[in-house]
Amino acid sequence: MRQTLNQIKQETQRKLSKRKNLLLKKYQNVQEDAIPDSVFEELDKIEALLQEVSIRKIPNQINIKMGELEKWYFTMMFDWMSAHPESFDSKSISMTEIYKFALHFFVENIVTVPGNSLMQVEKLRRKIGSMGEANSIEKNIYRQLEDIKNLAAFNSSMVYTLADLSKDFPDGVANILSTQQENEMDSSTRYAQVFAKFINQRQLTKQNIKNRNSSNSLNSDY
Questions:
Q1: What ranges do the domains of the chain cover?
Q2: pLDDT tens-digit profile of 45-72?
Q3: How far is Cα of residue 67 from the mean position of the Cα atoms in its chain?
Q4: C-alpha–C-alpha distance, residues 136 and 198, integer Å
Q5: ∠ at Cα 54 (49, 60), nearest 5°?
Q6: Is the pTM of this model over 0.70?
Q7: Residue 74: phi, psi to the nearest 5?
Q8: What proportion of the chain, given as a percentage, has pLDDT over 90?
Q9: Which superkingdom heads the taxonomic lineage of this protein's source (predicted)?
Q10: Are 12 and 49 in contact (CB under 8 A)?
Q11: Residue 222 neighbours by CB under 8 Å, 6+ apart
């Protein structure tokens, strides 16, 4: 359900006041000449956004003359909104709904967010464009962390096994590693094959635990 004007104002003022207080607290013990100019600019912008604005001179209806480019943009927006029905309140998408959504989205996420509002258009465009790239980097980091987690678990298991069988290796673990330096990077080695089997078994065990706990909503983090 679309929020009312008063609700939007209250939410905007709450966010702006929170940001203002955060900046003031962060720099309260910093000498004024040591505070970055960008902080003063953001505080000034927040103060301006907190001021009440008059909407009396804004007409209830406006006419928009569109060229080929604008028609293309509207078509793209229509397709996007059709795939995201939560973006509009009416039963069908009209040109008015498209305009309102674009206006609301831009004001709520750009104009009333000081960090975004102060940016030059090109810098803002780069920031938005890099969001997908950042998500890709984060996913890659998570995958690498999962690999590290798996490798650490495997090594712990192997160390335990070697320690348990230490009576068969009087020269100790160090001697074994110095003569058999295999790793999981070479898929042809026995180490890599055993490692792959271990990961597969570990994933199966993890899934089995989740399945067993699903009835009482317990989540496993093994």
A1: 5-53, 68-111, 135-182, 191-221
A2: 888 888 877 777 888 888 888 899 999 9
A3: 36
A4: 28
A5: 120
A6: no
A7: -65, -40
A8: 6
A9: Bacteria
A10: yes
A11: 202, 205, 206, 209
What H or E segment, with its residue span, contains residue 50? helix 37-50
Contacts of 169 (CB under 8 A, 6+ apart): 162, 175, 176
DSSP string, 31-83: -GGGS-HHHHHHHHHHHHHHS----TTS-S-------HHHHHHHHHHHHHHHH
Residue type at 169 in one-letter notation: F
> Tokens for 65?
């003359």
CA distance 158 to 150: 12
Average pLDDT taken over every residue of the chain: 78
For the stretch 111-170, pLDDT in tens is 888 888 888 888 888 888 777 665 666 777 877 787 787 777 677 666 656 655 555 555
